[in-house]
Amino acid sequence: MKNHKFCQSCGMPFREDPNGGGTNADGTKSVTYCSYCYQNGSFTFDGTLKEFKEHCRQKMIEKGISKFIAWLFTRGIGRLDRWRK
């Protein structure tokens, strides 16, 4: 299994994840998804790519990131492993 530098659901760098990654169903650390996107072997957000991008954009704005930068960061989400399937 490949260790990724970025969450393959939202694109956040793993170094920014306070938990260092999400958790698989067996309790092990996920090397693919962050703790915001993936907990106990399941995704925390169930919706379309468009809805997820807007969800991420809003969360970044809430954390003080400018609207433009939040938009810029969410543009490539569709190219990540979770959404290419």
Describe, in plain words, how this protein is organized in 3D.
The protein is mainly alpha-helical. It has three helices and two strands; from the N terminus they run ββααα. It has a two-stranded antiparallel ribbon. α1 runs antiparallel to α2. It is globular. The two termini are 17 Å apart.
What's the gist of this structure?
It is globular and about 35 Å long.
Rg (CA only): 12 Å
Determine the N-to-C terminus distance. Answer: 17 Å
What structural class results from the helix and strand content?
mainly alpha
Give the integer mean of the pLDDT values.
95
**Mind describing the biggest β-sheet?**
2 strands, antiparallel
Figure out the total of helices.
3
**Strands of the largest sheet, in order across it?**
1-2
Query: Could you state the order of secondary-structure elements as H and E?
Result: EEHHH
Q: Which descriptors apply to this entry?
A:
single chain; 85 residues; mainly alpha; two-stranded antiparallel ribbon; 3 helices; 2 strands; 5% strand; globular
How are the SSEs ordered, and which strands pair?
Elements: E1 38-39, E2 42-43, H1 49-62, H2 67-74, H3 81-84
Antiparallel strand pairs: 1-2
Helix pairs in contact: 1-2
